[in-house]
Amino acid sequence: MTRKRTGLPSRRAPAWLGLALAAGLPVRAAAQEREPAAADVATSRESWTTDADGRRFRVAFDPGSRWLLGGGYATGTSAGDGWAGPAAGQVETALLIRHVVDQPEEESAWKLYHEVLSGRVWLGDLGTLPVPRLDATLYRAAFLRWQRDGFITLPTSPPRRLQFPLNIGLDVTVGRFETLPPATGLAARLELLRSHFLLDAWRSRRLGLYAQFGLGLGYDLWLTGAFGESGDLGVEHLVSPGSDLVAAVRWETDDGRHAVETRGSCGAWWSSERGWGARAETAARYELIWLALNDQPLSAYAEAAYRYESLLDPAAAHEFRATVGLRLGIALTD
User: Fold this and answer.
1) Considering the domain boundaries, does residue 10 fall inside one?
2) Measuring CA to CA, which residue among 206, 196, 205 is closest to residue 247?
3) Does any domain span residue 218?
4) How far is CA 234 from each of CA 150, 185, 240, 309, rounded to the nearest angstrom?
5) How many domains does the chain contain in total?
6) What are 155's strand-pairing partners?
7) Rg of the chain taking only CA atoms, in angstroms
8) Residue 3 lies in a domain
9) Which of 16, 105, 133, 284 is most buried, judging by how many CB atoms fall within 10 Å of its CB?
């Protein structure tokens, strides 16, 4: 007999998010108190089923815990044709790990997201360089703390406890390296450190659901000049002293087959050579797992990204890139 998959209904996109941020957060927080705290709802779904012949196969996936290998096609435009070329193929890889650490005695849990050794390499016309156009990151992580009944403690006499309708967290990026087209006047950018204190308005205990925003700091190095030319590359220091604003929203279905994510950042940065300037970037992505090969997910995705660098010449200050591609994931969870 075929065992049918059971689970919760698919999650729905939070159309009420803007109103909740303005006035409805306490209502959301009260609703969270009625949710079960002892079990991870995200893992209650059936990941496997069997057919009429008793053969077992996977029907639900964890897009945040996999080693992915992918390829795609990118096209880009820029002000004055200073950044991306007309089109290029790309290959990518990343190791993604996420899990929940329960703290039942405190009625809380940590939602932990890790991205290790991720990178993309563009091939062809997307920037003419003697070295490949690439964007690689050593380590990126986010640590979000879910609290069943969020609160603030005031050190009065006696101490007072007030309701706090947001979850808290922290993100960090270490060692992002990106080569850049010659039109920018830069050879590469090295993002040594980025870190932000986060507030999560969604307040969901489930992995893959958040609506977070925060403020933080960063330290980058720009390598000026160009690879392959005689002479040494110059070094330019860029610092964000707590003035980098970030925001991100992610939603995915219970079975992990559909995922939508958008994120962005903007802020004031100081350059050792150019003074103060604004930097901003944003990206949106939709991914669909449409097939499984020997229980390993094969997904298709579409992504759009924009970047603005006021510290560069106006002809190279803007970049827009659109990408479509396929990814094969090696599942890291059962």
Assistant:
1) no
2) 196
3) yes
4) 49, 11, 20, 19
5) 1
6) none
7) 22
8) no
9) 133
pLDDT at 27 over 60: no
Both tokens of residue 132? 């490949």
Q: Is the dihedral of CA 291, 296, 300, 301 positive or negative?
A: positive
Nearest alpha carbon to residue 115 among 88, 135, 132, 89: 135
Give the pLDDT confidence of 116-167 residue by residue, as tens digits: 999 998 886 555 555 678 899 999 999 999 988 888 888 988 889 888 999 9
Find tokens 């999560």 and name the residue.
200
3-state SS, residue 230: coil
Above 60 in pLDDT, residue 11? no
Assess contact for 296 and 332: CB atoms under 8 A. no
Alpha carbon distance 73, 180 (integer Å): 18
CATH classification at residue 189: 2.40.230
Share of the chain above pLDDT 70, in %: 80
- How does DSSP assign 255-315, residue by residue? TSSEEEEEEEEEEEEEETTTEEEEEEEEEEEEEEEEEEETTEEEEEEEEEEEEEETTS-GG
Question: Distance (Å, rounded) from C-alpha 80 to C-alpha 215?
Answer: 32
Choose among 96, 111, 98: nearest CA to 143. 111
Cα–Cα dist 121/123, whole Å: 7
Calpha distance 233→107 (Å, rounded): 53
271-328 pLDDT, tens per residue? Answer: 999 999 999 999 999 999 999 999 999 999 999 999 999 988 877 788 888 999 999 9
Highest mean pLDDT among 46-60, 123-137, 229-243, 269-283: 269-283
Q: Which amino acid is at 59?
A: V
Q: State which residues form the domain around 321.
A: 17-331
Tokens of 207: 């992995």
